[in-house]
Design a protein that fits this description.
Elements: E1 3-9, E2 13-19, E3 35-40, E4 42-48, E5 52-58, E6 61-63, E7 78-82, E8 90-96, E9 100-106, H1 113-117, E10 124-129, E11 132-137, E12 141-147, E13 150-152, E14 167-170
Antiparallel strand pairs: 1-2, 1-3, 3-6, 4-5, 4-7, 8-9, 8-10, 10-13, 11-12, 11-14
């Protein structure tokens, strides 16, 4: 089972709160989050309650300030652990909504979707196997979006305000 500890101040100082499962609302536990220690499992943390806002993927390790997890600010309001996945990874990207248009299937990470798919505009996708992270920029940079197995008929369904996917990475067991 995973465990994550949030700290109000940098370098693991100040008030702290520990989670070992999903928590849709962390608002009552701390005012701000400036450092995090992940002692087990993989996690997605969210800027706002109910798994909304900017998303950040964290694996086991120490994050002494919010810039170390590429955070835009010190606001973390919800989180969930990522279940272990053993098996294959498969995702299909489409350049139109509702799984129409050009399709490209991936089984491995892709550092530059535009070079591979000849577009960085992804309007729908189908996660067939495994857990994935979309990044808005090539090279696994920019805003992140966590995807679990399922159908995403529109880009908004994975939480993105736009259709830009620059790179994608499968979440491999880090337990």
């Amino acid at each position: 089972m995973g465990k994550i500890i949030f700290y109000e101040d940098r370098d693991f100082q100040g008030k702290s709160h520990e989670c070992s499962g999903d928590n849709a609302d962390l608002h009552g536990f701390f005012v701000r989050c400036n450092s995090i220690r992940v002692e087990g499992g993989c996690w997605v943390i969210y800027e706002r309650s109910n798994y909304m806002g900017h998303q950040y993927y964290l694996k086991r390790g120490e994050y002494p300030d919010y810039q170390s997890w590429l955070g835009l600010n010190d606001s973390i309001r919800s989180c969930h652990s990522i279940p272990q996945h053993r098996g294959s990874y498969r995702i299909r990207l489409y350049d139109r909504e509702e799984f129409r248009g050009q399709m490209k299937e991936y089984v491995n990470d892709c550092s530059n979707v535009q070079e591979s798919f000849h577009t960085n505009s992804v309007l729908s996708c189908n996660v067939l196997d495994g857990y994935w992270i979309f990044f808005e920029e090539p090279g696994f940079k920019g805003n992140q979006y966590f995807l679990r197995p399922g159908e995403y008929r529109r880009s908004a369904s994975w939480g993105s305000p736009n259709t830009k996917v620059g790179s994608l990475k499968k979440i491999v067991d880090f337990y």
